[in-house]
Each structure stands twice: as C-alpha cells, then as structure tokens.
Amino acid sequence: MNKFLIILFIFIYFTLPVYCYENDFIVDEFLSNKDIEQIIPNSNYNYQSTYYIPIKNSIIDSITSEQNVYEGQIIKFKVVENVFENKKILIKKGTICTARVETIIKNGMNGIPASIILGNFKIPEIDSNKLQKEYEKFWLDLSLLVYPIKWLLTPFPPTGSLTNFIKGGHAKISQNQIITINYYPNFK
To answer: N or C: which end of the chain has fewer CB within 10 A?
Structure first.
C-alpha cells in the first residue's frame, strides 16, 4: 500500500506542473474578455539629474517608539539653518515643517530593533513631490550579536532558545538630533 502511495505522489508531482504549463486554458478563459491597461511611464522627468539640496531639521517634541507616538500622527520640525538655491534663500531658519508617522515597528525578539518611519513631508513653498519620500529611524540592532550566540548554543538544547528573549532597542528621535531631508529641485 505504501509503495502505491509513493508512486502516485511521484506521478502527480511530476505530471501536474507539466499539464498545467501546457494547458493554460483557465488563465486564457479568464483573460480573454478583459481589457488590460498598459502602464505609461512618466516621460516628462529627466532621470539623469540626481542633484539635491539637503534641508536640516530638528524635531520640536521628542518621540519614542515605546510610548508617545502612533501611526498617522503629525510631527512638527524646525529648519535648523537657512537653505539656499542659486544663492537665494529657499527656506529660512526656524521655518516650521511637518511630517506624518507612516509606520511604527516595535522591537522584537532576537535583538530586532524598533523603527519609526516618517513620510509625507510638508515644507512651506516647496512641492512635496520634490522631497525625499521617507525617513527611517531605528536604534540598536542586537541581532548581529544574538544570532552567532544562538548558533553557538544550539547544540545544547534549551540554551539556544534563551536568546529569543533578547529584544532590540527602542527608536527615539530627540530634539537635538538633526534630520536631513533631501529636496530634489529638478524632479517634475
């Protein structure tokens, strides 16, 4: 009986993919009545220019991944120094800017660090489409230390599993930290 099941499994394992590949009738029937749109690339943008102007910001109120931040929260920044473009002031020092907390990743087992991802930057008189899309802040990544220890201790059954309880650091953005957002003036 076992030999029969093994032979049946081998037969199905090798013949079913070949049958499905040669007889693509299900996909053909499904797509035959559908209109498929072609994606049109953005031909207006000159992809050769990577010129950018850094905008240095500092956060007004400190945030940390373990307590006072949530996804969708609007965070306020202050521009630290004047930003120039073609010897003209583009953004003055002290200008208030905003960003949204896009994602919060909590710290995990095996030393995986927490992470805060900011996006949707808004700076007065600057087109948001010409700004860097996101900024990620994470803290101490202990996984580079934990995994080698875990594999060294694996031959001793319960001890390798104990490294699972080591957690990575919390993400924090403090007021004295400089966050640089790139402005790409040649983007369209």
So the answer is: N
98, 74 contact by CB (below 8 A): yes
The pair of structure tokens assigned to 146 is 């934990």
The three-state DSSP-derived secondary structure of 126-147 is CCHHHECCEEEEECCCCHHHHH
* CB-based contact 83:94 (threshold 8 Å): no
How far lies 126's CA from each of 1, 9, 52, 129, 175, in Å?
74, 63, 13, 9, 23
Do the Cβ atoms of 58 and 178 come closer than 8 Å?
Answer: yes
Per the prediction, the chain carries an average pLDDT of 79
Would you state the pLDDT for residue 138?
80
* Helical H segments across 47-142, by residue range: none
Looking at residue 112, its amino acid is I
d(CA 133, CA 119): 6
pLDDT at 119 over 60: yes
* Residue 178 CA: distances (Å) to CA of 29, 63, 79, 99: 57, 14, 9, 15
What's the confidence (pLDDT) of residue 96? Answer: 92
pLDDT interval class at 78 (50, 70, 90)? very high
pTM of the model: 0.66
Number of C-beta neighbours around residue 77 at 10 A: 23
